[in-house]
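Appendix B, Record 12. Input sequence as logged:
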Amino acid sequence: MTKKSETKRRNGVRAAITGVHGHLPDYVLSNAELAKLVDTTDSWIVERTGIKERRILKGEGLGTSHMASAAVKGLLEKTATKPADVDLLICATTTPDLVFPSTANLVCDMVGIRNVGSFDVQAACSGFLYALTIAVQFISTGAARRIVVVGADKMSALMDYTDRATCVLFGDGAGAVMVEQAPSRHGIIDTIIRSDGAGMPLLHQKAGGSRMPPTADTVSQRLHYVHQEGAAVYKVAVAKMAEVADDLIARNGLTADKIDWLVPHQANRRIIDATAERMGVPLDRVMITIHKYGNTTAATIPLCLWDYESRLKPGDKLVMAAFGGGFTWAGAYVTWCYAGKSVS
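Logged structural output:
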């Protein structure tokens, strides 16, 4: 048993996801439309990525906070939670509205959450699981009773729509969960977060930060878009997502056949399939939304939970796994605590 597990058991407090909600922009960007922008076809995209369409946030002045706030508003309504009853809001995003203030700060203002802590977590596609891990610590120590964790990204803002290797992969969206003290023995049992900065050259945004601030030259050289070495990232992503899931299974005394749902980051259908095969989990027990949403970065896992929520039952064992640029990777073992739409 890990020290973390011992602490949870000694304090007698376990965190749980007690509600989930999502938001997707109205505009649907199909493969057929992308084929008019770059040298590609629907069959080429589907064969290599599994993606048929993705959502894009359109409208002047609209950013990640607008999707995140819509997801949070829906979550509060669904769980019958007043904004005043939220103790903390954590936003996982790689596409903040501004360098500062944080997107979490903006979301709180937009939904009427006042006088509480709020901050962003940036761990690329692993960001939601990083944020969930942080939320668990606040609940288990008693520092907070009710926490909103939202994963949201407007990846279209970082896309070069002349680069078919990346522009076909990503979409926009947001997903939010309520985290609070478990109403039963079920909840967030274990989490793992990992990173390796040596992976930066393979997946990153070249310009825009303090190392290379925006200039006319960086814009003209198209350095503000996502850069990815696809083949190399694929190999590491499969290895690390399977590794973190296997570690969770092993240290919690489980076997793959006892897992009701694998909830993988929706990076690429090939990565999802390879991860499931490596773990020995059949695809009918794998949450898959990439065909209709694409890779929404920090939003993929909460959007999976939202999409499959009606199929989840109390006690269902979920293993979540994600991999992101940098590199980062993370996992969570959760036993679902409710049936239906949420715990009020």
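The domain at 189-335 is CATH 3.40.47.10 (Peroxisomal Thiolase; Chain A, domain 1).
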